[in-house]
Amino acid sequence: MQLKQLANISAALAAASCAVLGQDAQAGTVLDDWQFNSAILLYNETDRVSAGEAILSARGDFGDDKYLNLGLVVDALTGASATGAVAQPGVQSFTRPSGKGSYDVAPGDTPLDDTFHDTRVQLDASWEQPLAPNWRVSGGGHLSKEYDYLSLGVNGSVARDFNQKNTTVSMGLAYSHDTISPEGGVASGFAPMLLRSNFADDDSYQAAFDATRDRADDTKDTVDMLLGLTQVINRDWLMQFNYSLSMADGYMTDPFKLVSVVNSNGEVQQNLYESRPDKRTKHSVYWQNKLHLGGSYLDASYRYMWDDWELKSHTADVKWRFPVSEQWYVEPQLRYYQQSAAEFYLPFLQQSDSLPQYASADYRIGKMSTYTLGAKFGTKLAAGNELSFRIALYQQNPEQDGADAPGVLANVDLYEKVTAVMAQVSYSF
């Protein structure tokens, strides 16, 4: 699912935005015909995951409307990640997904694996050029590598201008092939999490652990399609509408997530590795408007997504840029997101019930709402370069979706809120 805003659409949108907003389309271009954008992002969840990300993109102008786009992303994540298991009144012990080592969770706490860490490097490249009068094409590829995940992909797009270049219709296709190689291997669906303390020696434990592994790695293939329409309504209003389709086939279970089996009193009897379907089809529609309003610039968008996992989501995002001096501007942002739960999402399994075909207690596919409140501060520097700072507060609110909490589960937090702070520094030159 690596399809991004395709280069030809971005170029058309940026050019039209410059016309609408009265900005100099050549600002920030130095080093001959190259333009660079860089950013450093820091993300920190309270008592959970922390992340740092560095981004560098470059766009080279080779004349005759031919452009080379390059991108590099390096990010590192560390901290504690929710396993999906439920909290309990007493101490709980867990084996790490690799089968090596264990950790304990205090009474009443949400089970978190506090050794979560990873580093990812992603490379992107694309070339765009005219094909014929009013036609543009682009093509490219990407590579993303982390400790246990490799993603390779290609993409291409075509765009046609109409109405004196005030209307652009575009279509893009992308394909990616991902290889997942979790340490310890891929667990069988609903395989039990084993504890070393339940076995007489290391050899018998290792033999039992190996029996819960199905294979060393697995793959996933994804095809994405994007249909887009960009329209200049008038000199102060730019509108864009997209429809996207994503079809994934392969391993989509999270190899690190568990689902707890509880008795009628809510006490955990065992923890099982989750199991998800191996196919997913997603649809989404996206509508964006950029307006010039008396010296300020409003950017408002809405996205609706639905898939065959019965997960539906709504995203509304508003950014409003105001000049505060001749050189500085401020851009407040409010983003709201709401989703329903996937059809196989279950916060826990009842011991008295038979196992379903699929189940996951991962709160990320459960019912939730989130909001992001932030602001960006930017300034123009010499030679048209731009420096900006962004700070934002993110609040995630998982919600109950019809599952009653039996016994002791009524006294623990099954839907713990997640709060995060994001800070970003960007420089364009």
TrEMBL record:
Which is one Pfam family of this protein?
DUF3570
For this protein, the record's InterPro entries field holds:
DUF3570
- The name this protein carries in UniProt is DUF3570 domain-containing protein
* Species annotation: Rheinheimera baltica
